[in-house]
Amino acid sequence: METQNETAPILTLRNLNMRYGEKKALTDINMDILPRSITAFIGPSGCGKSSLLRCFNRMNDLIENALVTGEILFDGQLNINDAKIDVTQLRRKIGMVFQKPNPFPKSIYENIAYGIRVAAKSTKSEIDDRVEDALKKVGLWKEVADRLKDAGTRLSGGQAQRLCIARTIATRPEIILMDEPTSALDPLSTQTVEELTLELKENYTVVIVTHNMQQAARISDNTAFFLHGELIEYSPTKLMFTRPNNKRTEDYITGRFG
Ligand SMILES: Nc1ncnc2c1ncn2[C@@H]1O[C@H](COP(=O)(O)OP(=O)(O)OP(=O)(O)O)[C@@H](O)[C@H]1O
Ligand SMILES: [Mg+2]
To answer: Which helix (DSSP H) or strand (DSSP E) does residue 11 occupy?
Structure first.
């Protein structure tokens, strides 16, 4: 399914299917994800949003009975499903932020420095600069500059989620996957993360799963609606929330089920 934008897609899904053992989770997904934009995945619980997100950086490899078939082209070339690709390298390009903020049980500084160090040989001052830069980008620098040695786990929920986003952007990915990143946050922290996400799209491609229709409407450029593992509708967000093409989309976004 194509959106109206002419930009070349950063991800192209062709006949993507996925199952857990005998249980089908995704059926024939075809879609393009556009670069430097925010794409929202919506749909009722169990419709396959997280499963699809995990296909993008091969996180399903970690689930024993998960089987993915079909193609996901990255920049029109590399097939993410190719058995031969370097998965560690891929995950550096396609980072992920989870529902529950999950800082490492290390210092705030080390939470960010770790990935930078693993990615490339860097000097202490280079790392210091990039840690500061990442914390500034997520609006956390002022809050934590004088306590970088404190444990990341001692931050508030909203701060911890922003630390996790900082950790993700510090390794300079191209795509950031977010699976319900604000569902564990209070309204103010949610607003901060939403504003941050909007800023991120200047440099990154964001794919965000959300159960919050207002959130999808507020921040995303395109929205994909899933039901029972199928992509029902994929449209520019403004269009989807004003004139959905499909009756089932309309029922879902108007709160008739889900
Ligand atoms: N590890 C697993 N093993 C077996 N089945 C799974 C596994 N993970 C998910 N599923 C099943 O796959 C389907 C899709 O699940 P998924 O987690 O992708 O849905 P979701 O849209 O993210 O739901 P939610 O909104 O509740 O997070 C569901 O039927 C779920 O039970
Ligand atoms: Mg999910």
So the answer is: strand 11-20
- Of residues 241, 245, 243, the one with CA closest to residue 42: 241
Q: Flag whether 109 is in a domain.
A: no
The atom of ligand 1 lying closest to the CA of 226 is 21
Please give the distance, rounded to the nearest whole angstrom, from the Cα atom of residue 20 to the centre of ligand 1. Answer: 9
Contact 219, 208 (CB under 8 A): yes
Torsion of CA 95, 96, 102, 105, to 10 degrees: -20
**In this predicted model, what pLDDT tens digit does every residue of 23-68 receive, in sequence order?**
999 999 999 999 999 999 999 999 999 999 999 999 999 999 999 9
Range of the domain at 217: 11-104+173-253
Q: pTM to 2 decimals?
A: 0.94
Ligand 1 pocket member 25 (CB < 6 A): yes
Residue 228, domain CATH: 3.40.50.300
Tell me if residue 97 falls in helix, strand or coil. strand
| Angle, in degrees to the nearest 10, between helices 124-137 and 157-170 | 130
How many domains in the chain? Answer: 1
For residues 129 and 140, what is the distance between their CA atoms, to the nearest angstrom? 14
